[in-house]
Amino acid sequence: MFKEVLMLIAIVCLFATSAMAQSDDTSHEEHRAAFRVCLAELGIEKPAQGERPQAPDEETREKIDACMKDKGFEAPPHRGGGPRGGGEGRRPPRNESSGVQ
């Protein structure tokens, strides 16, 4: 009896995990589709093959966020200054002492 209950719990967990993963993929795909529609509506073109995309200016970013919000997607918080989010935690230049002796 105990084995059967454990097996049933494992199967339910497996199906639940699978269903959650599918809904995450679906919502991600819906978000990407909405983003592509917003870019098209705003006349923003993808960069040519091999070119790096340029970050939008603040006005364009606000337009994209407003379009995404109209389509039911909340805008993520924006952090400036590149991948580290504004230069927090920067290292001192190499010529400065690190304080370790």
Folded structure, characterized:
By secondary structure, this protein is an all-alpha fold. The protein is 52% helix and 0% strand. The chain contains two helices and no strands. The protein has helices spanning 2-41, 58-70. The chain is elongated. It starts with a helix and ends in a 31-residue tail after the last helix. The model is unreliable at 84-88 (pLDDT under 50).
**Overall pLDDT:** 74
Q: Write down the Rg.
A: 23 Å
Q: List the helices and strands in order.
A: HH
Helical content band: 40-55%
Number of helices: 2
- The fraction of residues assigned to DSSP E strands is under 5%
Could you list the spans in which at least 5 consecutive residues all have pLDDT below 50?
84-88
Main sheet makeup: none
N- to C-terminal distance: 66 Å
Q: Looking at the structure, what is the overall shape?
A: elongated
Decide which structural class fits the backbone: mainly alpha
Number of beta strands: 0
Task: Give a concise summary.
The chain has a domain at 28-46 and 56-74. The protein is 52% helix and 0% strand.
Keywords:
mainly alpha; 101 residues; signal; single chain
